[in-house]
Input
Amino acid sequence: MKRSVITQLALPGLWLGASMTINAFALEHSASDAAEENDVAAMIEAIRAATQRFEDVNVALAEGYVPDPSGHCITAEMEGLPAELGSMGIHYLRPDLLGITATEPRIDGNGIHTDFNNPSILLYEPQEDGSMVLVGIENLVFRKAWEEAGNTEPPHFAGRSWNYMADDPETEADEAHGFEPHYDQHVWLRDNGTPHLEPFNPLVSCALFAQEGDGA
Output
């Protein structure tokens, strides 16, 4: 009987202690997630400031960027993915930073450039008046060159591994969109207030490019 009373008295305290521990754990991780998100947001803001001049595509051209030889405005649907994922847009490349060695039959290179303040690729969205808006930047390293440089893991940015892109031989989707197998990381300058680092952006569209017939 005494043990029962003691147990009844002790259990609320045990539950209270467990609840406090769980709440503390949740608060700690919530604070950690918020701090990480703030860090990523700050990194993106720094990249936005460093690349602001490229809002004028003529500046990009003057600094050595050239339109993607494929001539495409890349969408998720083009790569066999759900259309609602959005688009990448039109790529403007710095051949020297990518270390381009071939453009046929696919783009290949030996560069291992990873500086996002000085990106190897700029991403533009076509507008109705024929102009283009800078919506993101990207860095890309070819897998073979990356591994030959002694790397055994993919590059990382903001705590995540870069995306690996290679064509799937079992489908007709051009998942590497004209490039040899590579790792890439997009940083979207157009966002909805949340840092967005995925390959495609649902806020970016190629519809106007397709309407002009330039993306065929």
Summary: The chain has five helices and eleven strands. The two ends are 84 Å apart (CA to CA). Confidence is low (pLDDT under 50) at residues 1-11, 25-29, 211-216. The first strand starts at residue 66 and ends at 67.
